Amino acid sequence: MKPFLHLCACRALSSVVALGANIICNKIPGLAPRQRALCQSRPDAIIIIGEGAQSGINECQYQFRYARWNCSALGERTVFGQELRVGSREAAFTYAITAAGVAHAVTAACSQGKLSQCGCDRDKQGYHNREDSWKWGGCSADVKYGVEFSRRFVDAREIKKNARRLMNLHNNEAGRKILQERTKLECKCHGVSGSCTTRTCWITLPKLREIGYLLKERYSEAVQVEPVRASRLRQPSFLRLKGARGYQKPRDTDLVYLERSPNYCEEDAATGSTGTRGRLCNGTSTLTGGCGVMCCGRGYNTHHYTRVRQCNCKFHWCCVVKCSTCSEKSEVFTCK
Ligand SMILES: *[C@@H]1O[C@H](CO)[C@@H](O)[C@H](O)[C@H]1NC(C)=O
Ligand SMILES: *[C@@H]1O[C@H](CO)[C@@H](O)[C@H](O)[C@H]1NC(C)=O
After folding, report:
1. Which of 71, 157, 165, 319 is most buried by its number of CB atoms within 10 A?
2. Distance 109 CA to ligand 1 centre (A)
3. Which of 2, 63, 70, 294 should be mutated for ligand 1, with most atoms under 8 A from CB?
C-alpha cells in the first residue's frame, strides 16, 4: 500500500500546504467530497492525518509480514493506500488500524501543540480526588478529540449506501474504541524522599504497536456478518452475525467481515490479491511464514549469501589490533 501523502508528508512543506491548501487538497487522489472540504478548512491537520494513515499501514505491514497477505493490494490508489475490493477480514483489519492510526496521530499532535485547535485534555486538570490527594497534572492525551477527528475524516469516505459501508464503519469504530480503551493513567509521586504524599497523574496514549497486536487478535477472531434491510428503502441498515439464531449484533470491538477471504496465493485483479511470488519465506518452518504455506506448493528459490567480516580481534602490545576474517553463510528463500 502506497501512502497518498508523500507529496506533502514532510514538515517543510506544511507552510506551503497552508498557502496552497486548495491546490494540495485537489491533488490528493481519491478524497471523498467531505474529506476534501475538511482538508481545505484544516490544512494543518491533513498532514497529521496522512502520517497517521501511514503509521496504520506500516503497522499492518509489520503485523502481516509473515502472512501470505502482506497488507498490500492491487488496484486503484485511494486516500489510505490501495483498498481491498473483497469485504474480507483483511479489509476489516486495514480499516480498523488506519482509523486508529489517524486518531492516534491527531491526539499525539494535539499533546505536542502541533495543531491549532486542540491541546491537552482540559477536563483533566485540577483536583480529581482530594481524599486520595492526587490531582491531574502534566498533559493528558485528549483522545476524545483524536477519535472525533478520525470519525469526521476517515468515515467520510463511506459514501455508498451499501453493506460494505456498514462493515467499514463498524471496523473503523472498533479500531478507535480499542485505542481509547488502551489509554493509561500514569502518575508521579511528590513528597519527601519519595513518600508520595501527593501525586500528579495524566492520561497517556498507548503505542500503535500495542494496538496492532490487539487488532491482530481481533482479526483472528473476526466474525462474519450480514446486512439487515430494515427500512422501506431496502437499504442495508445494520449488521447481524451470520448464521446466528435470531438477531445478534457483533460486539463493538469485534472486527467484522462480509465475505470469505481469497487464499492470496496468486495474483488476481478480481480480489486485489498480489499473490506470493517473490515473497521471502522461512525454509525450516512448517507454519505461516514457512515456504510450504507461503508459496502455496509452488516451491521456492534458494539464494546463498556470504558475508565477510572481521572477527577474533586481539590487541597486541603496543599498539596494534589484529583480526582474522570470518565468513558467514546465509540462505534466503523466495517463493516461485
Ligand atoms: C507484498 O508482496 C507483494 C507480492 O510479492 C510485493 O510486491 C510487495 O512489495 C510486498 N509488500 C510489502 C510491504 O512487503
Ligand atoms: C524460521 O522458523 C524457525 C522455526 O519457527 C525459527 O526458529 C527461525 O528463527 C526462522 N528463521 C527466520 C530467518 O526467520
Report:
1. 71
2. 30
3. 70
Q: Which of 12, 28, 1, 85 is nearest to 269 (CA)?
A: 85
Question: Mind listing the pLDDT tens digit for each residue in 277-329?
Answer: 999 999 999 998 999 999 999 999 999 999 898 999 999 888 899 999 999 89
CA atoms of 199 and 19, how far apart (whole Å): 45
Q: Which residue has the cell 553463510?
A: 329
Alpha-carbon distance 37 to 222, whole Å?
34
Pick the residue whose CA is nearest to atom 11 on ligand 2.
282
Q: Quick count: other Cβ atoms within 10 Å of Cβ 85?
A: 18
Ligand 2 centroid to Cα of residue 282, in Å, is 6
Establish whether residue 273 lines the binding site of ligand 1, counting it when its CB lies within 6 angstroms of any ligand atom.
no
Whether 330 is in the pocket of ligand 2, judged by its Cβ within 6 Å, is: no
pLDDT tens digits, 175-212: 999 999 999 999 988 888 777 888 889 999 999 999 99
Ligand 1 contact via 72 beta carbon (within 6 Å): yes
Secondary structure class of 111 (helix, strand, coil): helix
- Determine whether 12 is exposed, middle or buried from the number of CB atoms within 10 Å of its CB (0-12, 13-18, 19+): exposed
